[in-house]
Specification:
The protein is α+β, with helices and mostly antiparallel strands. It contains 13 helices and 14 strands.
Amino acid sequence: MLRLTPSQARRFHAHALGLDAPFSSVGEALAHLGYVQIDPINVCGRMHDLILRPRVEGYEEGALHVALAGDDPVGFEHYLPGAGILVAFGHEAWPYLVPHMRARRDRARGYARKLTPEEESLARRILAELRERGPLSSDEIDHDGRALTAWGTEARAVKTVLEKLFIHGRVGIASRRKFRRIYDLPERVIPAETLALPTASQEVSARWLAALRLRQRRLALVPKKELPLIEDIVEPVRIEGVASIFHCLKSDLHLVDRAQAVPPSASPRLLAPLDPLVYDRKVAARIWDFEYTWEVYTPAAKRVRGYYALPLLSGDALVGHVNPKADRKAGRLEVIGRKVARGHRAAPATKDLARFLGLH
């Protein structure tokens, strides 16, 4: 068992998540983290850009989707099994996701269940148009029908069926146009050598998924039901003064000493609301002594920090939050609210975010 002081645990956690030295490319960051969460909300930059900004050298807004498109994409978009969130994966994830896609095709209940005969008829037409015309958005396929979305709202049937085909693995997202999905056939989105890989069994896929969650968090509270799946590749971690037992990857153990030798960044940094460092609220509270909730879906009257508050990392401490909002027309980044511990400044980090967004 690895034993760490709280300070050592924080240094290891930040270092293992790539916050001390930037990766050279989006592909390198994706390979290390396993996936990056994608979210369309754009208050002061989108979630995926805010996650990658402090981790990739010279990262620019929108660079993730540039790297996912083109002739040599570094990965693809799909939903994280069991979580319902859209993420960017590296290509190596494909054979492990296929069992989940196929299971969805035959599921009797739920939003992305087996297509009805009417939906399958429309799906065949959509696939034929993609085959003949190439990458298309839902708006570029003519059809007057309506259907319910996953949110329970009404939308064009083409859009809903395309979403289900995507979840089933029968189409892929080839690119984005003003963040709008552009779909194509899987064989034109995923490399042929990746599609040719043997499909993982349900058991192998479950082990991969459990390990993937730990790759994403690097220091985590592993659920008891998942621990037997990955017991041979993880190391238990005891943190002084904390009752919980954490786990890290055995392959990360060499980073423990390295993290202590590398001084934390002297400049304060604003992190994404769902950054891997703070994604698990229990981990953030017990390791970083930081109580934080992303309040986008919290009623306005109950919000404590604000609609899109960003955690502030200073050295090896999370010292508060800033709630910024980009006014693109005026070219300004406004600070709606903030709360920062005494002795720390948020202004340098806020100015750095403004420069990233091309704002004052």
